[in-house]
């Protein structure tokens, strides 16, 4: 149905469409999904995020991709790679990230999708290094980083989270081809 850039066993990865905005807005307004972020996001903030992803895709051929389950073509969130340019000793860099609807947690989608995005980044785009960042307290995301073969570099204080004590200390993982 959709025009997928690539697929994994159960997931389709694509550029964003207008139909995704309200669905991503619901995900971004879920307090459990956004537990390790400074706040939930408004629909306007979600719309701006999706627009940034569309522009990044046009510029680079990648972004945090909109993701559907292939079984029923249902949008479930995003998994992909994105430019990070905040001020740190490892930026600018390309990082991998994911945010899925809470109803889709525990099904292995983040791990499956992240592995496929790494393959795409290394084999199709020709990138040689991918990083992943999360607050130290986000153990579930850190587990995914380990499952996809990334190795821990270090802990650091994220400059964009300096006003959020429980989120500021982050961990960074990386994988090189």
TrEMBL record:
Residues annotated as domain N-acetyltransferase: 25-168
Alphabetical UniProt keywords: Plasmid
Family matches, as Gene3D superfamilies: 3.40.630.30
Signal peptide: none
InterPro entries cross-referenced by the UniProt entry: Acyl_CoA_acyltransferase, GNAT_dom, N-acetyltransferase
Organism superkingdom: Bacteria
Protein name: GNAT family N-acetyltransferase
The organism of origin for this protein: Flammeovirga kamogawensis
